Predict the 3D structure of the following.
Amino acid sequence: MPDDDIWKRWVEPYDLFVSYARVDNQGQMLDALVAEIERDHESFSSHPLNIFFDKSSIEDGQYWRDEIRKGLRQSKMMVAILSPAYFQSDYCRWEGE
């Protein structure tokens, strides 16, 4: 079954996709939330939690829309950080579709 593990890591390398409105991360509140999710997960699992968070998952020079689309497709689940700005954002709506 090791081949299944390799396939799963390639097809779904991310456990979680974090969707948020950029304006809501002023002051790095969402950076802190993602770090807390990782710490909390470490307290009960020996397996690392692979999170797609655009600030750490997209490198400079990459076409961000393609990387977001790929991150969404390759994530097991998505958590949306809902706020008034989130609902007003065309980009957040695009991610949800």
Q: What stands out?
A: The chain is about 50% helix and 15% strand. Residues 27 and 33 are 12 Å apart (CA to CA). The beta strands are 14-19, 51-52, 75-80. The chain has a mean pLDDT of 85.
